[in-house]
Amino acid sequence: MQTSNPPKAANRNRVAQPSQTSGHSGEARFRPVAIPSQAIFSGAVEVEIDHNGVRYRLRQTSQGKLILTK
Hints:
Helix content is about 5%, strand content about 40%. By secondary structure, the protein is mainly β.
């Protein structure tokens, strides 16, 4: 008998799209939407994101990593 693990807190609020497969209970599985970083940055090194009235900065490092700060 398989038991299901509860979803992790970080995954609860993700925007999801239905996948082509179904879960064991017959419900559709969901996966996060993938957005290429090039679409977010559009050639810039840093962008500002407004989330619920709070402004965040997302920037690319010279090593290609992403840093999100408040």
